[in-house]
Every structure is written in C-alpha cells, then in structure tokens.
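User: Here's a structure from my thesis project, written as structure tokens. My advisor, Dr. K., wants to see whether a designed sequence matches the one we expressed. Can you design one independently, without my sequence as a hint?
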C-alpha cells in the first residue's frame, strides 16, 4: 500500500509516517518511481508506535522498545519492561518536580494576595 493509504488506515498524517521513517521506526520499499510502499503489518506497527508516543516516550526510547515487536522473545520483553520502568521513574520524578514548582507558585500567590489586600486596606 502507498503512504496515503497507510496514513488513512493508521489514523496518522503522511508527515508522521515520513518522520517515523527518518527516525528508523518504520521502513518501506520503494517503487521504480520512488514511491513508498508498505505492508498490512505496518498498520499495526504504526498503531504500536502511536501508543508509545501517547505514553510520552521519545523516538529514541521507541526505537529501544521495537525489538519486542520485531523479534518477540523473553529477553526483548524483559529489556522493554526495564526500559519502560526507567521511563516511568523519570516521569514520576518530573511530576514531583512540577508539583514542587506549583506549590512554590501557590506560596507566591498567597503572599502577593496578602500584599495586595494590605495595600488596599491602607488606602
């Protein structure tokens, strides 16, 4: 199938498919005229890639997880689980940092409101 058909079936843009190829996440064969051609299996592959991106994973991490799709084995599955656990830990740390930042902003907002109220009372 051609790139437009894959895009429609997978529910992604043609631009996304080109990006996936640039990142080495997806491959195609080329016709004599240079048109990309994909297989039906690529629809499932793109859906899998989309799920990984939706989970907040980078292209590099997605690349590290694809062996569990391309060559299923206990070893590849274990490596994928370990990598996803690292990503989850990274996200958890980021969330904690964001919560601390939000809490610091809340403190500043309370102080600013108190300052405003005091200024209005004095006037």
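Assistant: Designed independently from the structure alone:
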């Amino acid at each position: 199938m051609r790139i437009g058909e894959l895009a429609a079936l997978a529910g992604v843009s043609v631009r996304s498919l080109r990006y996936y190829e640039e990142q080495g996440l997806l491959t195609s064969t080329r016709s004599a005229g240079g048109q990309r051609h994909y297989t039906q299996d690529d629809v499932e592959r793109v859906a899998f890639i989309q799920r990984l991106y939706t989970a907040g994973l980078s292209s590099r991490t997605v690349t590290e997880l694809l062996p569990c799709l391309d060559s299923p084995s206990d070893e590849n599955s274990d490596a994928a689980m370990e990598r996803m656990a690292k990503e989850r830990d990274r996200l958890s740390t980021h969330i904690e940092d964001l919560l601390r930042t939000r809490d610091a902003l809340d403190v500043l907002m309370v102080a600013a409101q108190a300052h405003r109220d005091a200024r209005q009372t004095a006037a």
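When you compare it with your expressed construct, this may help: The chain has six helices and two strands.
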